Inverse folding.
């Protein structure tokens, strides 16, 4: 206990004494945490966005030609009773054709040339938000496809899947880049701590001569590394938060980020704590490596 | 306490700083190690606190074989030995008090006890008023006395002193010698490297003489003839 107080005090003195290199190390670690955190943040928000859009996705239930009023009533009763369904709307044959003509003005002759109205009647179903994950959506679709008088059911979610893939890709790239940067930050810590120990080698030798153990000597350096890691992590996260505010502010001036109306979320408390712990451990590991030779006294 | 058998130390291949030294010092002895500059006194002391390993031969100190001692045991060996270095070896960025209590703070000695001990030993070397000074603010003689205070504060099993009076005037030298004698009387084995023959006369004890790395003399004082 006494020793840890001593280690921390010595470490803080050491860090302050070499404040320029301390600052540089902290910034190096900060940059890697910032970028790693930035990628995690981006992929987290992209996948939120995907969830959001999945929730807003509507489902089309296409009816067979010549469906009877009775069949339709059965379907409507079922939809009304389904707790997952927020609202639904019937779209007749005729209405579908009109929509097509309106949307694709230049092709408005097409249906005519095809003769019969090729557009089936359908239900447009909005699903309830909360439990609207990918799998519930699928199970709804499967169920509706079994209904009598139903030709097919589909939700246009293929592109949502690709959004998710992008999010996953961003995450993978981020973790890859993050690891690379972490390695360089680790390298910096090792060099800075080695240099610090080298500058104090006379002092270290004296301590060894009067009977200091390896731990007494290495302890302050271990704490120095961990503190640099912690400060670096905190700095990176702080700048990440500032950046997020910046994006939100820019967004408020006019949509820039995928014209997304919802708010952007910061890293989860778990991810934030995780990054801090990782950067602290990285600093610690770097200094353990840097001063490992104290653990083998020279002959 | 100390045993050397055929100990040889060569810093470089061809020249031996110490050759074929065999000697033994019992627990509680007070011994001088003398010889001209370059004779190998410092080298011998460095072998005894495992700062150097002999090129050949065996060395035993405080029951430990220093050729075989594992690295992790070395700090424990050194804490049983008080060392006064020829070049003092004080921590410049720490106060006199911190320097002499450095080991104790790790061993869980209370601050109160550390202060009491420090004050007592600093009084003996005449430096109680410099307790909170930093070594670079002290003269050579004062630094030497701090080094002595650090070496004796824990009443070690063995005291090794390399030219401990080299920077002191003779009056102070004798006082330091008396301090060593007191410590020796309380059971510490003392080995002092010196080329100052005045000391040997002031407090006659066993004298080992080195000459160009060889032990050429091992002499115990003859008891004074009874005056009639
Ligand atoms: N670290 C060293 N490297 C090479 N030679 C050394 C070293 N230390 C001492 N010597 C040589 O060993 C011999 C004995 O030196 P030393 O033990 O310091 O003698 P003393 O203490 O009696 O003056 C000298 O010739 C000296 O030059
Ligand atoms: Mg010498």
């Amino acid at each position: 206990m006494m020793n840890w107080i001593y280690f921390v005090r010595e470490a803080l003195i050491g860090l302050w004494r070499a404040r320029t290199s301390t600052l540089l190390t902290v910034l190096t670690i900060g940059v890697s945490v910032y970028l790693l955190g930035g990628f995690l943040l981006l992929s987290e928000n992209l996948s939120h966005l995907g969830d959001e859009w999945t929730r807003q996705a509507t489902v089309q239930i296409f009816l067979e030609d010549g469906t009877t009023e009775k069949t339709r009533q059965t379907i409507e009763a079922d939809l009304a009773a389904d707790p997952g369904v927020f609202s639904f709307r019937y779209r007749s044959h005729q209405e579908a054709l009109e929509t097509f003509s309106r949307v694709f003005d230049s092709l408005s002759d097409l249906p005519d040339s095809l003769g019969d109205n090729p557009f089936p009647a359908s239900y447009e179903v909005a699903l309830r938000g909360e439990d609207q994950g990918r799998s519930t959506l699928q199970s709804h679709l499967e169920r509706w496809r079994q209904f009598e008088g139903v030709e097919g059911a589909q939700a246009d979610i293929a592109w949502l899947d690709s959004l998710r893939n992008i999010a996953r890709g961003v995450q993978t790239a981020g973790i890859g880049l993050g690891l690379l940067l972490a390695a360089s930050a680790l390298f910096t810590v090792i060099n800075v701590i080695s240099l610090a120990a080298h500058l104090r080698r006379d002092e270290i030798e004296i301590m060894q001569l009067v009977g200091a153990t390896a731990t007494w000597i290495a302890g302050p350096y271990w704490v120095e590394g961990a503190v640099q890691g912690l400060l670096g992590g905190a700095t990176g996260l702080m700048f990440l938060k500032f950046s997020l505010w910046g994006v939100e502010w820019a967004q408020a001036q006019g949509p820039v980020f995928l014209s997304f109306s919802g708010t952007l979320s910061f890293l989860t408390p778990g991810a934030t704590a995780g990054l801090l712990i990782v950067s602290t451990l990285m600093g610690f590991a770097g200094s353990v490596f840097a001063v490992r030779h104290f653990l083998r006294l020279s002959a | 306490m100390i045993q050397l058998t055929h100990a040889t130390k060569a810093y470089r291949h061809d020249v031996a700083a110490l050759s074929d030294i065999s000697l033994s010092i019992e627990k509680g002895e007070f011994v001088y190690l003398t010889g001209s500059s370059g004779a190998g006194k410092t080298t011998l002391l460095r072998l005894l606190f495992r700062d150097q390993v002999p090129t050949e031969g065996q060395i035993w100190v405080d029951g430990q074989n220093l050729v075989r001692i594992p690295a992790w045991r070395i700090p424990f060996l050194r804490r049983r030995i008080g060392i006064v270095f020829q070049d003092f070896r004080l921590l410049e960025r720490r106060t006199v008090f911190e320097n002499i209590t450095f080991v104790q703070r790790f061993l869980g000695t209370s601050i109160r006890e550390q202060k009491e001990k420090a004050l007592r030993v600093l009084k003996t070397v005449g430096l109680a008023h410099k307790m909170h000074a930093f070594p670079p603010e002290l003269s050579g003689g004062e630094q030497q006395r701090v080094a002595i205070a650090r070496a004796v504060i824990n009443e070690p099993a063995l005291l090794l002193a390399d030219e401990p009076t080299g920077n002191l005037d003779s009056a102070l030298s004798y006082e330091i010698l008396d301090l060593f004698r007191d410590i020796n009387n309380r059971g510490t084995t003392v080995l002092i490297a010196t080329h100052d023959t005045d000391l040997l006369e002031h407090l006659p004890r066993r004298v080992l003489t080195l000459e160009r790395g060889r032990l050429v003399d091992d002499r115990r004082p003859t008891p004074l003839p009874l005056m009639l």
Q: What stands out?
A: The pocket of magnesium ion (ligand 2) is lined by residues B 41-42, 86, 162 (CB under 6 Å). Chain A has a mean pLDDT of 81.
